[in-house]
Specification:
single chain; alpha/beta; Quinone Oxidoreductase, Chain A, domain 1; Rossmann fold; 2 domains; 6-stranded parallel sheet; 15 strands; globular
């Protein structure tokens, strides 16, 4: 008699206070869930890590419903269909979308983001969580639609080694930006930005004066700023924007995402005096254009205009210990955890 597979899970044990810690989660082995009408049962293959996961752990939840105590941690992931009660999916299909920290999960196609069928391709399956996933697509629509980067622009990107920031610079260069500058912490990351990610220059905010370096590198001002950090860094950039410059608010890494209430920039009147445009980005608003974005990203990757970097780990047991590294200086690129191989 064959042994029934176990559904390993990492559940939220308590709401984190301050920085998220591995002990905020607890391990459990449960039964494989039974799908109902409209449900798709998946076996998890990969988990992706995003800084926004931290805000889902707050009482408010940010732009998503909060994860409740005792529920599996939510994550973007890649899975293989085991059983489908949705005609759009069949057993064996590979898909990407909202999943959770467990071996088997029930998902639906009518959520805030589509459950995306993944094509057979000659690139690694995990790329569907990185360059062709949330990070890459946010960078794509942020640069092309939000910032409307055009030939001759001077572009600055903060958190430039992250899953989104590491691609935003290459996308800006592909669109003809004259100069693309990345901001990161430490000489190694700054070297990586220039040598691997295709940036023209890097600013080490930990060891250099940000304002002085911006004045040196952008004497005529910054035309487009892709902000992943917020806080004092955003305030400094507002004073260095060119007239009619554009600012895109993508994230607020400086806050640690421990609360949804953040203090706004003190230099916000610069928006008025320099006639700046500031807007946010949330990928949910582009759900009907994701395929178009992924296709263009694929063309740029094939042309060598975008560098793809993955920070890949293996082993279900590592799920909780990797999440805190999003805020404590992980390596460049998309942080991923491989749980299983497709059958």
């Amino acid at each position: 008699m064959s042994k029934q597979p176990v559904n390993r899970q990492w559940l939220l044990a308590r709401r984190p206070e301050g920085a998220v810690k591995p002990c905020d989660f607890r391990y459990r082995e449960g039964a494989i869930p039974t799908p109902s009408e409209g449900d798709v049962l998946l076996r998890t293959l990969y988990f992706g890590y995003d800084a926004s996961q931290r805000i889902w752990l707050t009482e408010d939840g940010g732009y998503m419903p909060p994860i409740r105590i005792g529920e599996p941690m939510r994550a973007m992931g890649i899975g293989q269909v085991v059983e489908s009660h949705d005609p759009a999916y069949a057993a064996g299909d590979l898909v990407e979308g909202f999943m959770s920290w467990q071996d088997y999960a029930i998902v639906r196609s009518d959520g805030p983001m589509p459950l995306r069928l993944l094509p057979k391709a000659d690139y690694p399956l995990s790329w569907n969580l990185g360059v062709f996933g949330v990070g890459g697509l946010t960078a794509y629509f942020g640069v092309t639609d939000g910032l409307k980067v055009k030939p001759g622009d001077t572009v600055v990107v903060s958190a430039a080694t992250g899953a989104t920031g590491s691609l935003a610079g290459g996308i800006a260069k592909a669109l003809g930006a004259k100069k693309v500058i990345g901001i990161a912490g430490g000489p190694e990351k700054c070297r990586w930005i220039v040598e691997k990610a295709g940036y023209d220059a890097a600013i080490d905010y930990q060891n250099e004066n940000l304002d002085a370096r911006l004045a040196e590198l952008c004497p005529e001002g910054v035309d487009a700023y892709f902000d992943n950090v917020g806080g004092d860094m955003l305030d400094t950039l507002l004073l260095r924007m060119a007239p009619r410059g554009r600012v895109l608010i993508c994230g607020a890494m400086s806050s640690g995402y421990t609360d949804v209430k953040l203090k706004g920039p003190s230099n916000y009147m610069r928006i008025c005096t320099h006639m700046l445009t500031m807007q946010g980005i949330l990928l949910f608003f582009y759900r009907d254009q994701l395929a178009e974005g992924a296709q263009q990203l694929g063309r740029w990757v094939a042309q060598g205009k975008l560098h793809v970097e993955e920070n890949l780990f293996e082993g279900f047991e590592k799920a909780p210990e990797l999440l805190p590294t999003m805020f404590s200086g992980k390596k460049p690129g998309k942080l991923l955890l491989k749980v299983a191989d497709p059958t």
